[in-house]
Here is the input.
Amino acid sequence: MEALNFRHNRMFQPRGLSSFQRLALCTTAITYLLILVGGLVRASGAGLGCPDWPRCFGSWIPPASAAQLPSRFDPSLFNPTLMWTEYLNRLLGVTVGFLIFATAVSAWRHYRREPRILGATVAALLLTGFQGWLGGRVVANELAAWIVTIHMIFALAIVQLLLYATVRSLSRGGGPPSPFLIALIVVTMVQIGLGTQVRGAIDAAIDNGVARAGALASVGTLDHLHRDGALVVFAGSVLVLMWLRARFTKEATLIRWGYVVVGLASIQVALGVAMAYVSLKPATQVAHLTVASLLLGAQTVLLLVHKTETDSQ
Ligand code: HEM
Here is the structure.
């Protein structure tokens, strides 16, 4: 928690973290881990490692060998590495589901009179249930790009709600949200949506026999829009930092979060450039996806900290 530096901010509670705050932070961190593992599943092509859902090859515990498969499954689909990768991803998903449930229960116990905190955790819980169902649709639609994009956007929405509940419980009061920061978040969400479409188009090209090295070149307009979008996100992040430095000279926490946003946007652009001009390495793909979700998270924290700071003036 020290990393977030809320305890040193006069608008945040001076004493140690409450049980709700610890749980909410832990749940947020593990949800990020799930997004990272989801990226690994995609990069390793393990998405269909379990061809059915919610079971895996018809059972709750994956079979030990192809010989144990029920007759309705083609034994050539059996790949233990991909199967276990996807199965662990699902287990982590279930763990996150339980953690979000526990966070909502804790919010009910401690913040019953703060509808925004309770509401955010309950909304996160409902979206998680929906997300589990959507995960099944992703498998049923054999990883079609449009449904993978929706799945990704809902994962990000869940993290946003958890961050909201956490930051809100740490702070008191709040002015109106900054339209400038909201615009940056919206543009970043659009950019993330475009990125997942680029990713889908690359996967489709590779499936159609295009060599991995040439797959990006075949994407066309979506790829160009994604590159232009990166410029907007990066320039917007730098402008936000300049504005914070000029306008909130005494708010060190706010300015620090501004730097975090610009730092993550820079890393993201560097990873994108590495994929576009060097090579499409799976590790870079996973990092690009993970940093995208961290960037959006940092922008959300910045928005919430800014709300608090403006209320204090
Ligand atoms: C702030 C800027 C950026 C954000 C938020 C962003 C976000 C994303 C996201 C979320 C994906 C989908 C990843 C997935 O579904 O696995 C993606 C894919 C991609 N992005 Fe970006 N991106 C940014 C900048 C860039 C830049 C500057 C480039 C290149 C010059 C780039 C090139 C790519 C490529 C090639 C893919 C497809 C990668 C793959 O197949 O996994 N991105 N981006």
